[in-house]
Amino acid sequence: MTREAETVVRTLLDRYGSTYAQEAGIRLADKPGPLYQLLVLANLLSARISADIAVAAARELFEAGYRTPRAMRTASWQDRVDALGRGHYRRYDERTATMLGDGAELLEDRWNGDLRRLREEGGDDPKRIGELLTEFPGIGPSGAEIFLREVQAVWPGVAPYFDDKALAGAGELGLPRDPRRLAALAGSGPGPARLAAALIRVSRSKTAAAEVKENAG
Description:
By secondary structure, the protein is mainly alpha-helical. It contains 14 helices and no strands. The mean pLDDT is 94.
């Protein structure tokens, strides 16, 4: 089973192993700017909208210069709406523009614009960090899970993090549904985050699991 699982994971990562942060152009690091950008992306991915549109909207926001909570907070509401619209995030653009401004204000006021302070307050406990993340407008439990899946690449204290959606994807591929065993198969560094993102894609696709197993066979 181990050799077979290793082959499946290798094939899975080759095909679907880009993190959502990578797709959004975020050079993720344990620094205030990239961590904030990941929070914005998690907010956008939380809506009932395609991941491709959410990623495109994040890129438009960042290209407009809204890469820090200060920049997001000082941008006009209309400028945020316009950037979201350019990414075709139109169904939720007005509400999201408001939430992004309010969230940036909360981050600056409570954690001095630095999500590492939130992590310290949460004591590297994923459950507590998730609870703190849900205090941001637009970040519910699903948004917190998105953030934690991706941030484990640079916050090793929360790794391995595979939520129920990722574990469902693992089950479809016949992989172990144990986070530590999955992390061991993924390798060190960004491996678990890449595997989590790939498993999410499998869980959302009707054909990805069969495709991966066929190519790994």
